[in-house]
Amino acid sequence: MPVYIVLLGPPGVGKGTQAKIIAERKSLPHVSSGDLFRENIKNETALGKSAQAFINKGELVPDDVTIGMIRDRLSRPDCAGGALLDGFPRTTVQAEALERLLAEFGGKVNYVPFITAADSTLVERLSGRWTCKAQGHVFHEKHNPPQKAGVCDLDGSELYQRDDDKAETVVRRIQVYFTQTAPLIAFYRERGLLTEIDGARPIDVVTADLLTVLGK
Ligand SMILES: [Zn+2]
């Protein structure tokens, strides 16, 4: 039986990092919806072209396009043993579509680890980032400060805050995440699949917890 993991977590909690580690440790492909979109658009697949058309109009990509990409990806031979899903589903409608899709592959969602942390922790992690203008080197006010404020250690270029990394933007992103994801969290909790993991701790501690949840 294939094993499918849906990894959930707000921005700043380290979900992407954990997804890569866990996929490797569990020998499962890391299926990131963001990567899938980029890949389909770059390769100009029918689904990619369709997605691009909506993006160009400033509209959300409809579920059937997104689910089409997921179906495509999960049909490949490397997903025969299952997959770790990252960034999908985002809504209960997508979660229901995923249930139907996985049933076609003779499987179901087995685990839904939800890595989470207090808003203040997430805001601190995300909003303290400063980026180098020349080469994109990234520093953090608290966790990885440059030797001289506002100057890149590596090439002496000016550091700036991307709009995404400004405190007010970060607070909003986090609020939007929790508001939009609440029904999905409830959906998986009701099914007894959800396990909360404290993401405020060091990376290796979070990984160890995740591996325990996922068994063996
Ligand atoms: Zn630099």
Residue windows where pLDDT falls under 50 for at least 5 positions: none
Profile the largest sheet: 5 strands, parallel
Helix proportion of residues, in percent? 40-55%
Strand order of the largest sheet: 2-3-1-4-8
Report, as a whole number of angstroms, the end-to-end distance: 16 Å
Question: Count of helices?
Answer: 8
The amount of beta strand, in percent, is 15-25%
Shape: globular
Short description:
The chain is of the alpha/beta class and 216 residues long. The protein has helices at residues 15-25, 33-42, 46-56, 63-74, 92-104, 119-127, 167-190, 203-214, and strands at 3-7, 30-32, 82-86, 109-116, 129-132, 138-140, 159-160, 194-198.
